[in-house]
Amino acid sequence: MEVYRRPESRPWERIESKTIVAVAKKPRYVDVSNPSLSVQCPNCGLKTQRFLDHCRNDGYKLWPSSEMASAAFKAWRDADPRRADASRYDLELPAEPMDATIDYVARAHHLGIHLFPNSNYPFIICVGALFLALAAIPFDGSVRIGLLVIGGLIFLYGVVGWVLVEDVRMFPSGSPSTDGEVHH
Fold this sequence. Notes:
Strand content: under 5%
Radius of gyration: 39 Å
Number of strands: 2
Distance between the termini: 104 Å
Helix content: 25-40%
Low-confidence stretches: 1-6
Mean pLDDT: 79
């Protein structure tokens, strides 16, 4: 009996001509209840991606093929809707998206810090002050008067807008009376 022939086969048939093992298109078994995306490599013992066909640390073959690892990953991912954003290359599940907005006004109020209201009028005041400062430079008299008038009007517009418009909008006069008590 020859080694490379099956006992019931004819002498001209070789073992390689017929497949002995069925070709798997789907993973035979994947533990979908395990939420981890990482495993310890059986060869080196270091943490590596669970659904890659090779260990990223020493190249040890974890899956028979990349197609089988991909099919196993898809079966694992489809088992739980929270795993939808996961990738084969991740070591951990992606974190839940959290709201990164911070209400600084409420936080300052809780800490007892007074914040000025958001306003563009201080910038307008600064532009007016710039023209007023330019009027102080010894230019020709008409230029200095022109800069003084322009700077004064811009500066006055900024102060009136900040004090009257913003302040009234932020602190309306129709607030209830406090009977002489002032809240500090």
